[in-house]
């Protein structure tokens, strides 16, 4: 693993930081592959209950590394699986600064978004003769069609305040409070039963009711029994993820 994606643990929360501040954390094939590995490893680690994804410097991510793209070297599709499928572990995007093009799509692929008040967000790919292939074209599933089309066809950016009004951002806070706000949110998630959290995320993402087997798997789990015992005994539950 290179130093393109820095990782650190804060209890049950993994913090992953895009680390190319000299190019506004533009996503090169190497950074994309490293981030893909970090996300897969976090999802496979039962001790990780939530992930916070942020960027080094003053920009979250400016999107695809256009200079690397222009040279024709490497592949840029290493995160397509995350954009489309995500991971079972909740992921919070902590936008320390602007999230543009693929950087905004990366934020959209996360479950919750905490953004700096002065951050600018948008899918600007059309300004470079491209289109938002990382999921930005599904924006109309989350905001009114007219809003999605204006953002997609003009490539213009919106403020974090506007994005919050549209429902694309959960919290817009001063830049210096982004990390602590995202961590506090992640810690609140990590306190809950991991099986229940994972199933809630899955069903909400898929916009459907649970199947009987899914209800059975969670409601008859050891964690469900522990949650009830802890409530009765007035103590914090000790989750095992089983």
Describe the structure.
- The protein is α/β, with parallel strands linked by helices and 242 residues long.
- It has two domains: 5-190, Alpha-Beta Complex (2-enoyl-CoA Hydratase, Chain A, domain 1); 194-233, no CATH class.
- It is built from ten helices and ten strands.
- The protein has helices at residues 29-44, 66-71, 80-85, 102-109, 145-154, 160-166, 178-190, 194-206, 212-219, 222-233; strands at residues 5-10, 13-18, 50-55, 59-61, 91-95, 98-100, 112-116, 120-122, 158-159, 171-173.
- Strands 1-2-3-5-7-10 form a six-stranded mixed beta sheet, with helices on both faces. A four-stranded mixed beta sheet has the order 4-6-8-9.
- A hairpin with a 2-residue loop joins strand 1 (5-10) and strand 2 (13-18).
- The longest helix has 16 residues, at 29-44.
- It is globular, with a radius of gyration of 19 Å.
- It starts with a strand and ends in a 9-residue tail after the last helix.
- The model has no long low-confidence stretch (mean pLDDT 95).
- This is Enoyl-CoA hydratase-related protein.
């Amino acid at each position: 693993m290179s130093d393109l994606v820095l990782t650190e643990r804060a209890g049950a929360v993994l913090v992953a930081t895009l680390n190319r501040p000299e190019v506004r954390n533009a996503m090169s094939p190497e950074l994309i592959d490293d981030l893909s590995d970090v996300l897969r490893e976090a999802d496979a680690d039962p001790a990780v209950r939530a992930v916070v994804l942020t960027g080094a410097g003053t920009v979250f991510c400016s999107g695809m590394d256009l200079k690397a793209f222009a040279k024709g070297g490497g592949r840029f599709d290493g995160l397509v699986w995350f954009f489309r499928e995500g991971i079972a572990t909740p992921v919070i995007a902590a936008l320390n600064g602007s999230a543009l093009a693929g950087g905004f799509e990366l934020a959209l692929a996360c479950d919750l978004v905490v953004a700096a008040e002065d951050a600018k967000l948008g899918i600007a790919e059309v300004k470079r003769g491209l289109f938002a292939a990382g999921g930005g074209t599904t924006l109309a599933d989350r905001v009114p069609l007219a809003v999605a089309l204006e953002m997609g066809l003009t490539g213009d950016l919106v403020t974090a305040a506007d994005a919050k009004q549209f429902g694309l951002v959960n919290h817009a806070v001063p830049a210096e409070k982004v990390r602590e706000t995202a961590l506090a949110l992640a810690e609140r998630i990590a306190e809950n039963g991991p099986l229940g959290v994972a199933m809630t995320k899955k069903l909400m993402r898929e916009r459907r009711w649970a199947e009987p087997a899914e209800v059975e798997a969670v409601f008859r789990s050891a964690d469900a029994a522990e949650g009830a015992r802890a409530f009765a005994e007035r103590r914090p539950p000790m989750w095992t993820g089983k």
